[in-house]
Write a structure and sequence with these properties.
The chain has two domains: 53 residues, no CATH class; 44 residues, no CATH class. The protein contains six helices and no strands. The C terminus is likely disordered.
Length: 131
Amino acid sequence: MIAKYLADHAVTLSMATLARRLVTIGMAHTTQGLTSPVNSELVRLVFRGVRHRHGRRQRQMTPVMPRDLLAMIGCHDESLRAQRDRALLLIGFAGAFRRSELVAINCNDFERVTDSKRPSSPLPCDRRPAS
């Protein structure tokens, strides 16, 4: 059944989406104490074939350059939403955060520092997204 699902959706879904769904199906079975059908030889062979036939390189985004960032934050809107957006852009750029890391930041992750001589790193430096 899962092998048929992979074959049916090979053209319409990306390989990353299919792989994510396989992991989800496997985890759903495992958490209920069932054997995961994802680990079957048939599913592995079909997934390998789909990747070989329909797989393509993941689309790479071009990085934001400092002049682009300055243009993005240069708007004169002083609304709360605009201030939030500028702060997210600057924090994301300065920390080189992934999207998942940026949206996982909470107000409690920040520390107000008044003494500029004291180094402070309020944000986690590892790449694990917060849960």
